């Protein structure tokens, strides 16, 4: 009861309202945000980040990504390690015309049909879906590769022609999953060691 009274007084206070309006106005200019491992459940505050180009929201408890619909300038979106089970429809993805890198691994996706919504994303060149239930389905890679036309890399491997053209057998070095086609486009960030030398 006491907490609610204080909150009501703060939100009705003119200075607080001015501060809140300025904060929302500042968010319009954000081009990079990183909220990783903070146990966040919502992305609602990102709705006003209309200039956002890089969004790292990994290792949280996110289930709904619809608030990103207004972030039409996104180039990189990292949502790995959340609790997302389904993706928005094709209208959502067709609005993200500049999105090139999408990291969705380690989530709860189970339906291949839902993942194919990404076919509406016109510039998507790299996607991660490993460690999701859907990645264990038979034909998962073949379906995605042939649904998302601009895609060049899926789950750490460059897409080979053999995966696109069915029943075409190429020499070993050009085959799918060949070590030469390995590409780690989402490496784990290394913590910088601090050197505390003796003075």
Automatic annotation (TrEMBL):
<keyword id="KW-0433">Leucine-rich repeat</keyword>
<dbReference type="InterPro" id="IPR052859">
    <property type="entry name" value="LRR-IQ_domain_protein"/>
</dbReference>
<dbReference type="InterPro" id="IPR032675">
    <property type="entry name" value="LRR_dom_sf"/>
</dbReference>
<dbReference type="InterPro" id="IPR001611">
    <property type="entry name" value="Leu-rich_rpt"/>
</dbReference>
<keyword id="KW-0677">Repeat</keyword>
<dbReference type="Pfam" id="PF12799">
    <property type="entry name" value="LRR_4"/>
</dbReference>
<protein>
    <recommendedName>
        <fullName>Leucine-rich repeat and IQ domain-containing protein 3</fullName>
    </recommendedName>
</protein>
<dbReference type="InterPro" id="IPR025875">
    <property type="entry name" value="Leu-rich_rpt_4"/>
</dbReference>
